[in-house]
Every structure is written in structure tokens, then in C-alpha cells.
Amino acid sequence: MKQTFRQSMSWLHTWGGLWFTWILFAIFLTGTLGVFDDPISHWMREKGKVSETPQTTAESRSRAVTLAQDYLVQQAPRAEFWSIGLPDDEEPALRVFWREAEGKPFQQRRLDPLSGTEMKPGSTRQTEGGHHFVHMHFELHAGTAGIWIVGAATVAMLVALVSGIVVHKKIFTDFFTFRPGKGQRSWLDGHNALGVLTLPFLFMITYTGLIIFWATYMPAGILARYQGNEDAFFAKLTEGPAPRPLQRIDAAVPDLVPLMLRGEAAIEREARFVVVEHAGDRSAAVRIFGRFDPDAEADSLVGRNSGTALFDAITGETIDIQKPNTVRGGNVLATQRTMNALHFVRFGGYPVKWLYFLSGMAGAAMLATGAILFMVKRRKKAGDEFGSATPRVYRVIEAINTAAIAGLMLACIAYFWINRLLPLDVTDRATREIQLFFAVWLLTLAHAALRPARQAWVEQLAATALLCLTLPLINLITTGDWLFAALVRGDGETAGVELSAIAFGLIFGAALRHLQRRSASEVRATAAAPIVEGA
Amino acid sequence: MNSPLAPPHYRLALLSRVVAAVIGGYLLASFSTIFLSFILPSSLPEAVLGATLFSFAIYTAAIVWVFAARNATRAWLGLLLPGSSLAAASFILYLAGAAA
């Protein structure tokens, strides 16, 4: 490999980019949709139709906590943790979560907040809502393995950004250059313009993405300096209370209501979660989390939190109180938290969320144009990188390109349709929705493998456009609610989801028309060729 | 169209670089984290965090270096020399800290 720095970076950008571009596109697209996870959940749970839920009172919360505690004692008297989610506007059910021990599965149930009995399937539209996209974004619904795959792809993204900058040395000239309708050249111009336009955003979002899981991805420091004891390290870093090891002495958890009320008084917020760590053990502690207030300190990047109160469960002694919106720890921790807040768009409200949404979509489009460019270049002139297997490898890359880009977009909008069409009384309904999302995605891969390349693109884009444009209709048919009604009642979240779907439908429609006009002009060019030759 | 695949020595050199980039680069970033956690001027937990925040930039630079180097041997050397120096320096700092 005797070549210049720019040539070696070009090679790295092309091949490193290709093998990671599909997964990166998925991370970008679902992460960008995840910016609006709350409005999406609002749409999927039909919150727009529900009138304001009554304010919870200290009595209603106390009653709910007692019912949840009775239920949890029955299910798991000894547990690594219990967590009780108190009802609120978004989630009217009383939710309980627990895990018996590390390595055992997480358990989750939804209870009626008045009777404490398990909610029957079908009483509400059970769904993960917009959280599905968020989970897809950071762990591909694959747990720890998914977090590591996403981490590897994120490092590849950083490398692709650096090598991309080296390759495009005329970075500002490129930015002002777009030559449409010129095939390969146009794809490259588009890839460059999108990449340069969003470059600061892309660096920020990629680096801060790694920083969120810093202790998982780079444990060397904690291993070497704290013998790998994360609990001890984080207690020191966050200036929190010392960890409480399991004592293995049985001790029943006393009534949680008095502790919840003391916690609420201490942090001056209503409780949102009541968590018991080491339930059933002498070392049990009760942690009260306050309700998040989106309007408090909305312009602050660091220290936005809802407050927590920690008590010894058995003696009732106060271990730690952190008031809402207070900062703990030093400047480096504040830096790391600022990076988190930047990644999660926890600042600036809707205008900044829209800025992130548009930048994220531009990033996804940059990745898609890069992947398409790879094949457009090689359709014209094969590179023979894989010897005699090259045509077959190209065919596979082409099919994966189609399914990873057009197919994923189709699966994402199909997820909204699945939410409306799947019957309400299906067991594990929320999980089924996600399984069907993956089923649709898998089908697009089969479709891309069976159909000619251009046809596969056209058909999947057409299906995506159709599902986007008609989303308000399916909502009207299945729930009786729709865009116009949402606009009239001033429900911006429901209307925003449907208007955005229509906008995406129009964009895909325009892309399709462009594709068709292009193929028509190619046919004309071929038909005209013999005449020119004859002349 | 039926040109042969790249010759075996080219493919081996490429594999060597990929291993250097993924594993070698990660180890270099790990040792730089440990070294920086000794010398950054703040409390120990904050130094560990700060060193780790920086390590992903080092990892990225290491990968770029591996593919920019003239050959695979130089790529490896460029990782092993700074990596082993950082490890040795960290060990000395650890002994100095234990003695103090």
C-alpha cells in the first residue's frame, strides 16, 4: 500500500464506511425519530382523546404504594430491587417492576391503581410507543450485545468522519457545489453537502453517544484505579452515599407510605417512583424519585433532575437527600453530564428538538447517499474487489442497501400501522408490535433479494410513501380520531405526528417521480442511440 | 471480469491492520486512560472520568494511524511504542503512589 495519506483515507472511508453504513443508518434514523419519542407515544396511546387525568393526591399515591407493596411481597419477598411507578398523565396504570437477583429476568406488571389487581390485556392500547425507536437506537433490542455493536459502529462513524474530511480537501467549495441530474456526480455532491452541512452536529452527536456509556466502553480506568468496583467509584464520583452491600439477614420491608411522604416533603416534589433496593434484606434502602418538571430550569444543561430521597428501609434513618435541580460532583462530572444533555436534547424545548430532528435526518440521508454512491459507482464500472465473486457480492450489497435504507423506513412507518391494526387483547401486545416491526423489515430484505435492484427500490419507496400519506386515514378508521380533530382541539403532538408522516410521504413521492423520470429518459436515450449512429 | 482476488500477502497485511486498529487501538486508548488518570490535576474519580472522556479521541486517532501507516509493521510499531511507554509510566507512577 504505497500511497498518499489522502488515498489511504479514501480507502478507509469507502470500505470502513460501507460495512458500517447500514447499522449506522438504522442508529441515525431511529435515534432521530426518538427525538420525538414522547409525541409518538402520545399518538400511539391515543392520549389526545383522553381528557385530562385528575391530579393525584397524597391519599391516592399512598393507596397505590400500599397496593403495589402488597403485590410485590406476594411475588418476590426477597429481590435485588422493587420499583413502583405511580400513575400519571402519560401512564394511568400503577406499574411494578422487580428482579429477584442479578442475572434473573426483569419482571414488569401493570396494576389497577384502585384495586391492585393485574390489568387485563385489551383495557388499553399497550405499546412501547416511541421508546421502541430509542431502544432500537442504542441497543438494537439486543441488550448488552446491542450496546457493544452500537458502540463499535459509533467508533467507525468517528473514523469515517475524520477520513471523510481528509478525502474532501476542498470542503467549502464542495459545500456550495450541487450538480443535480448527473448520476454518480450528484450522489457524491449530495453526500458531501449533507456531510459538511451537519459536520459539527455529527461530531457532537457521535462523540457524546460514546460518552453516555463511557464506563461500559472504556472500563480501563475504573479497573486499574478502583479494582473494577464501580459502586465504590460512582459513590465517590457523584459525591453520593456509600454503597450498601447485601447483609443476607432476612428483614421484611416495613410500610412504604410514611417513607414516601417523608421523601416528598424533603424534596418538595410529588413522588414518581418508589424503589426498594435489596428488598427483604437487612441492607434494604428506599429511594423516592420526584416527578420530573419539564418547565423547571429548562434552559440549563447541567443538574436538571427531579430530586431523590434515600432512607434505610428498616430503621427509617435518612441516608441522603438531593433536592431537584441541584448539582453534585466536580467539573469533569459536569462536563460528562453536559455531553449527555447535549445528546438527549434535554434543553431548549421544541425549537432545538426540531433542529436535532432535521440534522439527524440530514445525517441519515448522508449515510444513505454514501451507501448508494458505492453501488452507483460500481454499477457503471465494476471494481473487481472480490475476484470472480464480485458480481455476486455486489448483488448482496445492493439487496442489503435496499433493505437497510428503504426497508427500514418502510418498517418504521409500518410500526405506526401495526400499532393501530393489532387487536388490543393480544397477550404481550407491546412485544408483538416490535416483533412485527422486525418481521416487516425482514420481509423487505427478502423482497430486495428477489426483485431487480431498481424495482426493489421503487416498490419499497412507494409502499413507504403510501403508508406515510394515509396514516391519518388509518387512525380515523381505527380510532375515530384524526388530524383535523387534533388540530381543532389544539393537540400539537397528535397533529405533529400525522403532519410529519404526510411530509415524509410527499418527500418519498417526489423521490419516486424523480426515479421514474430518470428511467424514462434513460429509455429514450437508448432508443435514440441507433439513429445517432446511423446519421 | 474474472480477475483473481488480491494476493494472499496483501490480504494477510490487511487482516493484520484490522486487528491492529480494533484491538491494538483499543489497548492504546486503555493505557492512555490509565496514564492520564495518574497525571490529570483533579481528584482521583474525576481524573478517571476525564481520562476516559478523552480516550475515544485517542482510539479514533489510533485507527486512522493504522490505516495511514506505510505498511502493517509500521502500523503496529506506532501503537506498541506509545502503548508500552504509557503502561511503563503508569506502573512507575503506581509504585511511586504506593511508596508515598
Low-pLDDT stretches of chain B = none
Sum up the overall morphology of chain B in one term: elongated
Whole-Å distance between the termini of chain B? 69 Å
How many DSSP H or I helices of chain A? 20
Give the mean pLDDT of chain A: 89
Beta-strand residue fraction of chain A: 5-15%
| Largest sheet, strands/sense/barrel of chain A | 7 strands, antiparallel
The helix/strand series of chain A, from N terminus to C terminus, equals HHHEEEHHHHHHHHHEEEEHHHHHHHH
Chain pair sharing the greatest interface: A-B, 44 and 37 residues
What is the SS-derived class of chain B?
mainly alpha
The total beta strand count of chain A reads 7
Q: What fraction of the residues of chain B are assigned to beta strands by DSSP? A: under 5%
Count of helices of chain B?
Answer: 3
Total count of domains of chain B? 1
> Compute the gyration radius of chain B: what is it?
17 Å
Protein name (chain A): PepSY domain-containing protein
Pfam family, one (chain A): PepSY_TM
InterPro entries (chain A): PepSY-ass_TM
Transmembrane segments (chain A): 12-36, 145-172, 193-217, 354-376, 396-418, 434-450, 462-488, 494-512
What would you say this structure looks like, in words?
The complex is a heterodimer of chains A (535) and B (100). Chain A has 535 residues and is an alpha+beta fold. Among the domains of chain A are: 54-124 and 240-328, no CATH class; 382-524, no CATH class. Helix content of chain A is 61%, strand content 8%. Chain A has 20 helices and 7 strands. Chain A is globular. Chain B has 100 residues and is an all-alpha fold. Chain B has one domain (11-99). Helices cover 85% and strands 0% of the residues of chain B. Chain B has 3 helices and no strands. Chain B has helices at residues 8-39, 44-68, 72-99. In chain B, α1 packs antiparallel against α2, α1 (8-39) runs parallel beside α3 and α2 packs antiparallel against α3. The longest helix of chain B has 32 residues, at 8-39. Chain B is elongated and about 55 Å long. Chains A and B meet through α1, α5, α8, α9 and α10 of A and α1 and α2 of B.
